[in-house]
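Batch manifest, entry 17 of 40.
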Amino acid sequence: MKLHQKGFLLVEISKATSIWDSDLITRALKEYGLNGSYWVNSLRVALDELAAAGLIVRIGSRLDDGKEIAPGALLFHWRLSEFGRTRMRDTGLLNYP
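Output type: structure tokens
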């Protein structure tokens, strides 16, 4: 059984010091066998929800040159917050393979 999408995003973010949302989305689409703008936008909303909950933090942004999501799309650079790390430890996600 696969990990739920928000859990997958948290695990991927926790593996890196920081990561761009375009890289996270590419990994998630591949992991779940998804494609299309609906799923890209759904994953971007999931990242916003994780940020609103204080689990991840935006540390930068830039405009897509058309090579990642869509020309002119605003891309965000993310890192796990200390609160997020604590919650992942509490739920067992921090040690998830």
